[in-house]
Amino acid sequence: MTNWTATLANLVAHSSPNDEAIASAKKGLLDYLASSLTAGQTETGTLLIRWFDEEGGNADIPLIGMHKNASARQAALYNGYLGHALDLDDVHTDVRGHPSTVILPALLSVAATGSFSGRRFLEAYAIGVEVMARLGLTIGAQHYTRGWHNTATLGGIAAACACAYLQRFSAEKIELAIGIAATQSSGMRNQFGTEVKPLHAGLAAEQGYVASKLTGLGLIGSKRTLDGENGFLSLYGDGTDNADALTSDWGDSWKISKPGLWFKLYSFCSAAFHAADACHELLSQDTFILEDIQKIEVIYPPGGDAALIHTHPQTGDEGRFSVEYIVALFLTNRTATLSDFNHETIPASIRQVMNKVTRQYDATIKPSPHAVPKGRFTIVRVHLENGNILESRVDAPLGSTDKPLSMDQLEQKLDDSCSEEQAVQIKQAVNGLDKAATLSELIEAVR
Questions:
Q1: Residue 239: pLDDT band with limits 50, 70, 90
Q2: Phi–psi pair at 402, nearest 5 degrees
Q3: How far is CA 4 from CA 11, 99, 175, in A?
Q4: b or e along 71-87 (b: 16 or more beta carbons within 10 Å of the residue's beta carbon)?
Q5: Backbone angles phi, psi at 299, to 5 degrees
Q6: Average pLDDT, stretch 254-279?
Q7: Which domains does the chain have, with CATH numbers?
Q8: Residues 281-297 pLDDT 10s
Q9: Most C-beta atoms within 10 A of its C-beta, which of 20, 240, 345, 421?
Q10: What per-residue confidence (pLDDT) applies to 238?
């Protein structure tokens, strides 16, 4: 019987991501920093910093954009939370979650006080994404639909593997780090639409950092945490024998590039991006006004809306995970801004349109081979009072791997997130990171 923990650890220890993966890692790093800096000072972030000040500790690691340091563990927690605070950070379809906002904060906490090359850092990041994506494929769809938040449950293991690779741990030590991270895995989707949801990313980043730190100090635990009846794959998986997906064809290509990361221009759940694009298309088809609308149908394949847990959201925060809110928002305002997703009660004008939206499911509609995620689509159908019916179907929204953002769009996202001077510093540091002997320029740029 295959020892999956040992097999995975051995692959991580001896990996060497290619130049394509490194180029993709640079884009992911740029997007993560843009998402984090856009989040800026949040109420939860301020609360965390107050806690760190009370707790004390060695203040060595920068809290992104805050001109303030914290301990490595604290910084992993904060920087992980910050990257996911607005739900503006990247998505990977194999993960069914957000890899960079977990992996990169953990790596930064290790790297900021060590001596590591930029290339090694980017390789470690690519390997972390690889582990998290393969765990997502292995664990199966039922993990998510049962209520687990993959970003949280899979992220700690991926971050631990990335940190272990960065520090050149042996395969045996990586097995131990996987075990310490896996035993901490947690995170429930019923927290979507609350401040705890982005905290999941921070907690997973912290878990990954702590797992590598404790392993480095010599803590001994199980070396077969993924395996057996009581192992992670059985406890969290859907009962299928899909463990081969964890390691098969490792290194033939890298999942940070293929299928790649999905970068976001809007601050809401990617599962609603299809509907947003469909609304844009509908608005270009006809000059109808809101009062003309009789009803709106949003049609999915069965389970295609699992992440959108709020059908009657009360606030913009909950609206991030509500297709009813996103459709009403885009049909009313033609776009979405950061201010549309906060603690405020949803305006009556938007709620009037929301009340016309219903969800439907159709298993007979054939998914497109180019759908992102695989097997998904969203159809928005608007019935007008005059009897006309407008319809738009989207299989792969803008920003997804089938319709990726350009480098100019990614850089504009960064430009919009911080001062011109800081944006220039970050671009310079990221672009040259694979040739840099240390990470000092990057660390200084993100403060």
A1: low
A2: -85, -20
A3: 11, 21, 10
A4: bbbbbbbbbbbbbbbbb
A5: -110, 130
A6: 97
A7: 4-254+407-445 (1.10.4100.10), 270-394 (3.30.1330.120)
A8: 999 987 889 999 999 99
A9: 20
A10: 75
